Each structure stands twice: as structure tokens, then as C-alpha cells.
Amino acid sequence: MLNYTLRRLMFAVPTLLVISFIIFALLDLAPNDPTGNLPLTIPPEVREQIRQSLGLGEPFPIRYLYWLQQFFINEPLNLLEKILGFPIGDSAERLRIRSWATRSPVVDLIIERMPQTLMVVGFAYFFGVLIAIPIGVISAYKQYSIFDQVGTFVSMVGFSVPTFFTGVVFIVIFSVNLQWFPSIYDTQLEVTDWSSFWQQVRQMVMPVSVLALYNAAQLSRFVRASMLDNLNQDYVRTARAKGMKERVVLLVHVLRNSLIPVVTVIALGIPTIFSGAIITEQIFRVNGLGQLLIIAIQGADIPLVQTLTFIFAVLIVLFNLIADLLYGILDPRIRYD
Amino acid sequence: MKKLTTILTGTAVALTMSAAAARAERGTDGELKIIYWQAVSILNPYLSGGTKDVHGSSLVLEPLAKYDETGTMVPALVDEIPTVDNGGVAEDLKSITWTISEGLKWSDGTPFTANDVVFTWKYCTAPDGGCQQAEKFTDIASVEAVDDRSVKITYTVPKPFPYGPFVGAESPVIQEAQFKDCLGPKAPECTEQNFHPIGTGPFRVVDFKANDVVTFEANPNYRDPSKPAFASAVIKGGGDAASAARSVLETGEFDYAWNLQIEPEILTQMAQAGKGTVVSSFGTSVERIEINQTNPSPDVGDMRSTRDGGAHPFLSDPAVRKALSIAIDREILVEVGYGAAGQATCNILPAPKNYASTNVDWCLTQDIEGAKKLLDDAGWVPGGDGIREKDGVRLSVLYQTSTNSVRQATQALVKDWWQEIGVETELRNIDASVFFGGDPASPDTFQKFYADVEMYTNNFDGTDPERYMSSWLCKDIPSPKNGWLGNNIPRYCNDAYDALVAEMATTADIEKRGEIAIKMNDMLVNDGALVPLIHRGEVSAHSNTLAGVRMNSWDSQLWNASDWSRAK
Amino acid sequence: MTDTTIAPAAAPRKQRTITADVFRQFRQHRGGVIGACIFLTIILLVVFGPYIHGVDPSALNIRDKNQGISLAHPMGTDNLGRDMFAQVLAGGRTSLAVGVTAMLLSLLVGTTIGVTAGYVRRLDGWLMRLTDLFLALPLLPLLLVIIMLFRDTLRATFGPETGIFLLIVFVIGITSWMQTARIVRGAVLSVKEHEFVLAAKSIGTRDRHHHRIRVVLPRPRLPVRFSDLGPPALRRRELPRDQSLAGDLAGAGAVAHRAQRQLYRRRTARCSRPAH
């Protein structure tokens, strides 16, 4: 197992390099341009100067190597410096990855966005899982019962109605008509006492529930399917025949086995937390990583898009590994050697 | 109804202004909450020319003079606008001297001097800085500080309109002490400075979260001790126009929302909640269809859409161009896509008033029969499928624009009208960041114009149209030779027009300049280089509790935020 | 034999096939039957509707804009006076065609990659890293590049409509197979170790190929069913923001998108005007 993990980790390095190169090439090839969103009153010659000042005059391989250097050497050094609190080398001269739109270091932007994304999307994912498992279990156990039918229907609705629709409906009902929750997320809010905590909860309710509904809808179907598959297995009959209590059969034997694939699906979904939920963030103005990415993509802010997508790729590779390992741990029938 | 609203708002503004004047104390009105759904990315307009960034920084950084809502220059950091009459502008029009108001201070308490103005010029013209407002500083020989309070700008050529630099939100003055290490290639690296510029405006930056939210507080050293009325301000970003409108008009969470480009009927419906007012103003933006005078066919290879590739097979016929224009019902386009934010127009230069032509109105009423007759007379006769043709050339048009629901609706309508007069249209829409991006490798940019006609909006900053009107010079035609840079998108080339541009460059008299500009406008439109469609305005909304808003299209919409106050 | 077919009581003894079994079980699931009926109705409507409701979906009639429901316009008209019902039918046709083809494509790619990865250990690492790459790719730049590279070629070869259809199917297909691949692979890995595979191996099931196709493949049916849900996950990424997805793609999708917007336009419609 350890051997396997190490091998996978070794393999991950060249993989990620290749991925970063492909992303970079793709972004470079794309015909959108960082000056595309500027007012037309800025004449073409000035636009050309802007492009040059962004470093677009350099050939493609050079720019890629710069990015590699900045991402793998300069930025980690900077972070280390910040954590340790004393300068390492010539930190002022060290070039950082800068966003083209804000001209500020990309890593700082990402760090700034982390709290709200983790708060909203992370919580939504957590609640989604929390809701999905019991619903899935009951639906499967009482297949075709009213509860199952209702559950199926609700998850179908939750799944097929897009979040931008549910989001707006929520705003119209709870913000405009009832005035219960704010329609705009305040990223400046600092939780210091009960009243600001309460405010934070209020502003999180709507985005979190919209997203949690969506996540739960998806996941509960999966739990249900997995449970059904296990309920028909021989070992369940054996367990019942042995005279085990139904609760024990269901919650100890069946659930445990059914959760094997579910856990991996959950693990595989964790990177999406970091990529943010673009639509939901837009609607409630959570302005997290998702909004950062979409603005960057639309504005052809290549350094920012490159860095964000690459971090996302790292997370995907990492959680893929974790999912595989979990699979091995939970299901002894699977052997990696 | 439209007029009535304007009058009413006008009265309201007048009333609130006097109310604000009566009560005068800084920071007594709490927090001003502004929403810009396109979030502010940076507070330095020299590094980002995006409208949102220019507006955001205008709360902090100020130019020497601003434009008010009528397009008139008003002094900001000076006491009066230099003119030839008051001796501020030299007789030969080659220099202008600004005298800075006495006792002016930066928000950090240090004195504002002429050297800061000089530095600003150096900052924007430093090589490799990628200054986005470089165009404002063209033809400048030098900017020098005559003494602490006067700045002399010397031009290399006579400038009939010498108010390019340091007028309007696009070219404000930045502090030398703060930015002195940020010249040229260093400019983008000064994140601290770019995010927290020190200015002279009514507010100063407390906290800046790029692409999200900016927090301001009242500038303690603001020149008017009784202003601003608000103690603090925020500009929140993100989301879309509809939800921004909702946050002012329906939930009342915000005081001011910028750029509410949504369906007219939805806006009206939101306004009925009674929490806010929708305001609009008109600048110089015109939505137009540009007509390719050259041949865009792939058959001519590399010479596609250049003058070397020859004239357009059918759009070179003036009758066809005119027929295409009069087949369009501009009122319907306004009604469907723009509402109060649009007016049908036949002018490519619709404002300011003394530059706007009143001579061209033949396109304002749709005339399908007239268009058909024009084409008949010119020998274009309907073929078997109803599409007109002559000598084997079919009137089949490729019509491109950027991806946007209003533009696609306009395309659909226009296609329908052109169908009626026997012109076949293929529609294409291209992602805006590609279409306006100018990547020479992409075939889909508006400069390359690999289509027969294309539609977009253009305008100019400030009130002087000289540079804008010189867009259609023969030498400015984009082609592979100049890397497709050039403003003359329709590839219009007319010696008489070039002569008018030269004449305008040497004319100082404002009346004369108006006459020339009008002549140019009429020439472009009557020749059918472009088909103007709609004079576009801007729409914003403010809360009914916010007083003092004077919506402005000539400068930042937040230009007079120092006068804003909480209505009691 | 003749007797058994005649006698009703003996009917269950008739040769049971998988199809019949599935059908029988399916009929008992009321929700499933309702769903199938709705789906069938949609298909029928979309296929034959335009012949019955013979209104041109793109015909403008600006004087009749924003009409409510009437006999002539069963769903009213949009802001350009186009008949909504005709648009929904036409849009539904494209959506259905694109959706089904793209889904089949993504299922095909996903299952192939998943099964291969799960079964052939040597390829597992490579294929899964390929999956990771596709999961990480930003969609909009990818679309722009694909359009730039292939639009004109496809247009020239297949004509504007078929060309764009193929482009959309291709784009959706290649950007939505990853989830399927991962889940299928996981299932194959787990199934591989089940007793029946061992049994199949030990009774000498002919070759590895047969073994993979007939024995392992049918098992992961549950995850694949789940993966039908995959394509809509597209929506969670950059796609739906207004119509910012590259122009031509909007061409076919826009009909449905527009119709959808119109249906709940009162609050959600966004018709933001261009910046320039």
C-alpha cells in the first residue's frame, strides 16, 4: 500500500507538469485577449503597448518557463517567508505571478478568496452529504414507498432545476418579499461577537441551502443505488437468517458496504469545493474562487486562469489518489500492489 | 412619459441640492453603499482603462477639471478652466497653463503641488509601463512645473482642444511621493499603491479586495470641510445587472447601482417597489452597423478585407448601402432592446450638442418600398428564391457581432427586414473577448472584419470629437501591413473626408469645429460607410434616500459623490 | 408447447428474456412509467409537433410581442413576437438531438476508458491522469480554441447547421465523460474481485476480451445509470452565464435557452446590453 502510494505520488509529478503545459498551451492558443474588455476609446496602438507590457511579446516557451519558475520556486518561497516571518534570499526581486487585470499577485488573490469559498461551498457540500445519506438509505430500504417516491421526485427536481433558477427564486421569496436574509453576501464581515455571527449565518443560509440541495440531490441517488445493490446480496440474507436485528443488518452490514463507493464519490467531489460554485457565487455575490475564475476567464487573464486551474488539477490528482486509497482500505477485496 | 420622468428627476435633483447645501457637515450621513456588478479590479486608471475601474478610482483620484452632466468642464483642483481669453491657453494653441487651487492637500495631509501633475505625465509616458491612458498624452512636448501651483503643458502641434490630459476621470493626478518607484516596468508591481492610491477626492481607500469590494472612508483633508456627507462608502461587485437593480430598487440594500442594462419592462416593474429611482443619461455611444467597403471573400486569400483585395462585390454600390439602412426600423430596435437607454439616430456623432448634426434624418423612418425601389433602379432584381442579384452577384450578407442577447435580437429583426427587400442574411455572433480582443491570429476580430457587415458600439471620452472623427482616415485602415491595428473599420477612404480631418486639426473656433464635425458626420452617413442605429445612453438607479445624484455620461458616474447625501 | 402458450396460467413459464424481465419490472415502477410517458410525449411532440403547429419559430411579428397564452400562440410570444410554442418545439428538437448524441458519445468514451483503466492495470495510471487533465481544463478557453480550429472546416465540409451540430456534440461529449470513466473504473475494480469473475476465470472463459465484455461490463450498471446525470453537471461550470458561451455554440442551444428564459423571464431574464 505504501509502495503503491509512493509510486502514485512519483507519477503525479510528471503528470502535473504535462497538465500544466497543456493548460498553458490551451490558454495561449485561445483567441480571446486581455484587452478585449477595455473600452474602444483606447486606440489600437495603446492596446499593443499594453499587450507588450503584459509580457505577451515574449515567445510562448519562455513565458511557460517563467510561469513554472514563479509557481514552483518563487511563490512557495514567498509563502514560506510569510509563515516564518524572516526574509529568504532577495525577496524584493523575486518575480511573482501577477494577474493581468488587477496587477496583484495571484496567490494573494486566491488566499483572499479562500474563506468565503470554503465557508459557503464547503458547508454546502458538508450539508449535502449529511442530508443525502439518510435520504438515500431510507429510500433504498423502503424502495417504492411514499418516502422513496417523494425523495426521488425531490432529488429529480433538485437536480434538474439549475441553481441559477433556485437561487433567484430564493432571493425573490426570502429577500425581496419576506426580507429575512440579505441577497448580497458581505465578504467584509468579520465574526467577532454573537450579532456578527448571526449576521454571518443569515447571509450564508440561502447560498448554502441552494448548493446543498443540489449536492444532496445528486448524492442521495447514488447512496440509494448503492444500498439497493447491497440489499440483494447473499450476505444480507445470511445476516438476517442468523437472526440479527434488522437495524444491525441495515446500519452495520449493508450501510457499511454501500458506503464504499459513496465515500470515493464524496472524496472525488472535494476538489470542486475549491473550484467554487460559479453560478451560486455569482447570484449571491459570494465572490469566492469560482467568481475569481470566471472573471479571469472572461477577461483572458491568463496568469490567474493558469494558476487557478493548475491548483485545481493538483487537487484533482491528489483526491483521486485519496479516493483510490480509501477504496483499498474500505474494500479489502481490492488490492493494489 | 420619458420627458416627464426627466423633468421630475430634474426637479428632485434641484430640490435635494439645495437641501444638501443647507445642511453641511462631513461624515454625518453614515455609509454610502454602491454596487458595480462588474467588480472593480484595480484603483489605478492608468493600469486599467475599464469603466468600472475608472469610476471606482474616481472617488479617490481626481483630475484638474471634470465634466458635469451637460458635458461642460468644471474646475476640480483648479479655480478656473484655462482658456485663450483668460490667458491660460497660448495664442498659438501650443501650450496650456493650469493654476492649482491654494492650500490643496492629499488625503495623507501633504500638500498637492504642480510636481505631482508633472509626475503623472511621466508615469503614463514612461516606456514599457503599458499605460492604458497613453492616448490622453499624445503630442505633448513637455509638462513642467512653473511654480508650486502652476503647470504648463507644451504641445508639439497646435491643439485647438488642449484639455486632453488631466481632464476627466480617465486621467487623474497621482501622488509623486507614493508612486515615484513605480515608473515603467515597475508600475504593475506596485500592488500596494495601485490598490490604495492616495488622492484628493472625497474618500480615501480603507480596504481593497480586488474584483470584490472596496471600502472607503471620508477624506479628512478634502478641500471642502463640509463634505462628503457620508462617513464611509463601499463599492461592492459581482453578480449581474438584474440583481444589482434588485438590490437598489426592490430590497433597498444598496444606494446606487451602475449600468443596469436589463430589459426595459423589468426595470420599470422593479421601480414600482418604490424604493429607488431609475436614472439615465446620454453620452456619445452609437450602436452602428459598419459596412465593409472591401471584399471579405476567402477567395482573395491574404488580401481578404483589405483594399488590395478590391472593392466589395455589392456593398460598393451606394444604392445597396442606402437600401440596407432605410429597411431598418430603428424605433423598434429601441423598443425591444434599449427602452429609455436608447434613441433612434442617423448620426455617428450624436453629441455634444454643437457637434451633433441635424441634417440627416432620412434613415429615421423605415421605408421598405423605397429600399426595394432603390435596388430595382440600381438593377438588382429578385431571382428565383426572392434574393436579388445582378450579373451573377447575389445580395447575400454575412452579418457578425459580439455575443449578447440584445445584439442577437437586433440581428434577428434586421435579418427579417432585409429579407423583405430581397437581401439574404447569415448571422454570426462571436464571444466579445474574441471579437474585441484584436488577437491577430484570430479570424474573428472586428478589426479583421471577415464579414460583409458587423455591428458594435463606439464612442469617445470627454466632449471633443476630433480624434474620434479622425478614425475614418484612409491611412488608418487595418490591414496585415499594420498588424490589423487601425480605427477605420469600414475601410472607408475618401480624400474629401481626409481633408476635413486636416482642417479640423487646425481650427480652434468652437463654432467652426462644430461645422466641420457635422460635415464629416453627414459625409460618413450619406456615403453609407456606416449605418448608425441607436444613440445609446446609460442607465443606473439610486435609492430614494440618496440625494444629489447627477447622472453623468461625460465623466465618472460618481463624479460628484462629494455632494451626495442621505435624504431625510 | 402449444398448450403452454394457450393456457394463461402457464404463461410465466414462457421463456424469460432479460428484456421482458426489465420491462415487467419497469411497468411496476409507477414513477418510471410516468417518466417514460412524459419522455415519449416530448419526443412525439418534438418530432411531429412542427407539422401540427405549423408556425415558423423564427418568424418575427413585432406587433405581437410579449403576448400571453392564446389559441394562436399556445405559449404566447417572446419579446420579438416569435411564437414560443414553435420555438420550444424547434429548440426541443435540437436539444434532444444534441443531448442524446452527446450523452451517448460521453457514455461511450467514459465507459470505454473506465473499463479499460479498471481492467488493464498497465493503462490505469495513464488513463486516469488523462481524466484528471480533462477535469481540470477550463471550459471556455477550450471552447474558443475548438471553435477557432474546427468551425470553418466543419462548416465547409458539412454546411453551417450540421457543422455546428457536430461541433456541439463533440464539445459536450469530450468534456463530460470523465465522471463516467471514474465511476466505471471504480466499479470495475471492485467487481473484478468478485467471486463470479474468479468463477468465470476458473471455468476457462475463453479469452480476456470476452471476459471483460461479457462478465465484468454488465455489472457496473448502477454507476453508469448514475452517470446519466453527468452531462447536466456541465451546467455547473462556466456554461450558463448569460450566453457567454462562444457565439456559434449558442446558435442551436440558444433556442432552447431563450425559450427557457422566457418562461420565467419576469424575474430572472437577463438581457444585459453590450459594453461596446
What is the number of beta strands of chain A? 0
User: Strand-residue fraction of chain A?
Assistant: under 5%
Average pLDDT of chain A, rounded to a whole number, is 84
- Model regions low in confidence, pLDDT < 50 over at least 5 residues of chain A: none
**Cα gyration radius of chain A (Å):** 24 Å
Low-confidence stretches of chain C: 1-12, 207-273
Number of strands of chain C: 0
User: What's the shape of chain C?
Assistant: flat
Strand content of chain C: under 5%
Describe this structure in words.
The complex is a heterotrimer of chains A (337), B (568) and C (276). By secondary structure, chain A is mainly α. Chain A is 74% helix and 0% strand. Chain A has helices at residues 2-29, 44-53, 60-84, 106-141, 146-160, 163-177, 194-231, 234-241, 246-274, 278-284, 289-298, 302-330. In chain A, helix 4 (106-141) packs antiparallel against helix 5 (146-160), helix 10 (278-284) crosses helix 11 and helix 11 crosses helix 12. The termini of chain A are close together. Chain B is built from 15 helices and 21 strands. Chain B is globular, with a radius of gyration of 25 Å. Mean pLDDT of chain B is 89; it is low at 1-22. Classes of the chains: A mainly alpha (337), B alpha+beta (568), C mainly alpha (276). At the A-C interface, helix 1, helix 5, helix 6, helix 7 and helix 9 of A face helix 5, helix 6, helix 7 and helix 10 of C.
